[in-house]
Amino acid sequence: MSDPTDYTPSYSFSGFRASSPVTPLPASKLDDELARISEAVNDHADAINDVRRSDGALKNNIVAYDSLSRSLQLTFDPTNGEAVAAPIAVAQAAATAASGSATSAGTSAAA
């Protein structure tokens, strides 16, 4: 299912009332707005029902490995080279930066 459509008012009833305080609200415009509100609410309910069971839990088998964060994926498959490579590269870069900072600090302290 595609993302549900949000409701955006297309007619200003307060604007109508301000410009025509004694004229009855236009029934067809009111009906159109109520229909659009109903459609938006139903679309959102359908989207929730796509992922949620009646007891409030996620539907069975809806969470896939690819939808998990990298760190959680590693708890399931620590041998996955692709998932392991990026965190290792980040850690190595941090270690190199820390080593450079330590060297600079040592040089500065000796001076």
Give a verbal description of the structure.
The protein has 111 residues and is mainly alpha-helical. The chain is built from four helices and no strands. It has helices spanning 13-19, 27-51, 70-76, 81-110. The longest helix has 30 residues, at 81-110. The model has no long low-confidence stretch (mean pLDDT 86).
Distance between the ends: 66 Å
- If you compute it from the alpha carbons, what radius of gyration comes out, rounded to the nearest whole angstrom? 29 Å
From the spread of the alpha carbons, the general shape counts as elongated
How many DSSP E strands?
A: 0
Average pLDDT figure: 86
List descriptors.
111 residues, mainly alpha
Structural topology:
Layout: H1 13-19, H2 27-51, H3 70-76, H4 81-110
Overview in brief:
This protein is an all-alpha fold and 111 residues long. Helices cover 62% and strands 0% of the residues.
